[in-house]
Write a structure and sequence with these properties.
Shape: globular
Number of helices: 5
Helix content: 55-70%
Strand content: 5-15%
Order of helices and strands: EEHHHHH
């Protein structure tokens, strides 16, 4: 794996102090994989998932742009990953910015989540208001 990080993994059981250090995909490798998956799924509209678009959006938000660009350059300069990375960046340049692309889907998904959250807040406020009204 060209873009990788070491991650120390420990047990969820507090009594178990064992740990293991493993190589995991770095953010650029993960972004490349996600972009290929999105391109594959957008070819069949029934397979498109909000989660995929949000994963791409989260990577772009979480990883500093300069660090992500540097790692993508390393992938593009590698004989093993050059063509796959180049194809992924084309997906990023094209589909990502369209309304039907991952960013558009991520925005719609965030909007739906925001509406659900506002409805829940309104319902909670209404219950609190009615409860306080009865107490008076």
């Amino acid at each position: 794996m060209i873009d990788r990080d070491e991650l120390e993994i420990s047990s969820l059981d507090a009594a178990d102090d064992r740990t293991v250090t493993m190589n995991v995909a770095g953010p650029a490798a993960l972004l490349v994989a996600k972009l290929h998956k999105l391109a594959e799924r957008t070819a069949n509209e029934d397979r498109v998932k909000d989660k995929d678009a949000l994963d791409v959006f989260r990577i772009l938000q979480a990883v500093p742009t300069a660090a992500l660009a540097e790692r993508l350059e390393v992938l593009q300069s590698s004989a093993e990953a050059e063509s796959i990375t180049e194809e992924a960046t084309k997906h990023l340049e094209g589909a990502l910015w369209s309304a039907s692309g991952p960013r558009g889907r991520a925005r719609r998904s965030q909007h739906r989540a925001s509406r659900r959250s506002r409805r829940a807040d309104t319902h909670t406020d209404d219950v609190v208001w009615r409860s306080s009204e009865r107490a008076c």
